[in-house]
Amino acid sequence: MTQTKTNNHKNQKTGTKKLVVNDIVSMKNSEKISVITSYDYWSAKICDKIGVDIILVGDSGGMVMLGYTSTVPVNMKEMLIFSKAVSLGTKRSLIVSDMPFGSYQIDINHAVKNAIRFIKSGSDAVKLEGGIEIIDRIKAIIGVGIPVMGHIGLKPQTTKLWEGYKVQGNTANRGSQLLREAIELEKAGVFAIVLEMVTTEVAELISKSLKIPTIGIGSGSYCDGQVLVLHDMLNLYDNIRPRFVKTYTNLSEIILNAVHNYIIDVKTGKFPEEKHSYKIEEKEYERLVKIIKKIQKKISPSSPNISENKND
Ligand code: KIV
User: Fold this and answer.
1) Rounded to whole angstroms, how far apart are CA atoms 77 and 83?
2) What is the pLDDT of residues 265-308, one digit of tens each?
3) How far is the CA of 58 from the centre of ligand 1 (A)?
């Protein structure tokens, strides 16, 4: 079983000021950006405390938290609940929320309205999947003052419908198309771009061509930052296991053992012990017995006696 180190985290960023979008942009060429997904209060609190730069409230939450088989069914209501919980657990990290499928495709007003709902629920920015085809909506959202993160390459909301989950940018044409899309997104004003499952060479080309940071997932080491789904790296979700995932600990096994031991303790009476229980004071117990006896006599005069010593 993988062991988790708990005591030697020397993260100097803990407790420093809240990160804003410009802090993230200025990390390009000086420091790699760490991004991780979170969808709830407790995991956001841990990620924030240890110094992750960006917490992404990904629509992957629809799969790893709600059990959907893709990111398509997750809706605004669910994403807003995730985002709110994350914002309550976060002090320093920048919070970016994924706009779910259907929340920005219809028209510009709809997209802007939904982006505003995320900011009101505590997010610092939103992420939209897509390139040139949604540039008007990206511009409109930025136009009302909301920072946007782009997302190109594999776009799980729609790629699956056309070609399935496949490596992106593996031909000269597809690679140059991705580069063009990245440049257009930068021009539109996005502050960073996620590159999902893009070949290492194309991701490097894009990263070197932009002034804004690229955040890779399965796109090699030349990106300016990396993102992983929390449940993947903790081995809490094994329905899909892309090759780009690195498992840092086996939390499934740890939880499994803990719950197994709990069941045994309950069945054998080992839990709860006295230290987990609460006692009534001796005097109060004696009074209680007297009260009960009186009640019993009234209801059924022949009922058995209760001991006045609470330890009998
Ligand atoms: O929803 C998500 O987790 C994402 C990442 C894969 C980038 O969009």
Assistant:
1) 10
2) 999 999 999 999 999 999 999 999 999 999 988 887 676 666 65
3) 5
CA–centroid distance, 149 to ligand 1, in Å, is: 11
What confidence score (pLDDT) does residue 6 get?
A: 46
CA of 95 to the centre of ligand 1 (A): 13
Whether 168 is in the pocket of ligand 1, judged by its Cβ within 6 Å, is: no
Find out whether 98 and 79 touch, Cβ atoms under 8 Å.
Answer: yes
The 10s digit of each residue's pLDDT in 27-47 is 999 999 999 999 999 999 999
**HSE toward the beta carbon, residue 226, CA cutoff 13 A:** 14
Amino acid residing at 247: T
Which of the listed residues 34, 155, 214, 217 should we mutate to test ligand 1's pocket, taking the one with most ligand atoms within 8 A of CB? 217
Q: Is 129 in the pocket of ligand 1 (CB under 6 A)?
A: no
Catalytic annotation on 201? no
CATH architecture of 2-247: Alpha-Beta Barrel (3.20)
- Catalytic annotation, pick one of 31, 196, 286, 308: 196
Return d(Cα 204, Cα 175) in angstroms, integer.
Answer: 11
Residue 14, both tokens: 């803990």
pLDDT tens, position by position, 155-199: 999 987 887 889 999 999 999 999 999 999 999 999 999 999 999
Sign of the dihedral through C-alpha 55, 58, 64, 66: positive
Please say if the pLDDT value at position 202 is more than 50.
Answer: yes
* Predicted model pTM: 0.91
151 contacts 127 by C-beta, under 8 angstroms: yes
Question: In whole angstroms, what separates CA 148 from the centre of its chain?
Answer: 18
CA 299 to centroid of ligand 1, rounded, Å: 65
Beta bridge partner(s), residue 194: 151, 215
Tell me the best of 36, 98, 160, 230 to mutate to test the pocket of ligand 1, counting ligand atoms within 8 Å of each CB and taking the most. 98
- pLDDT at position 4: 43
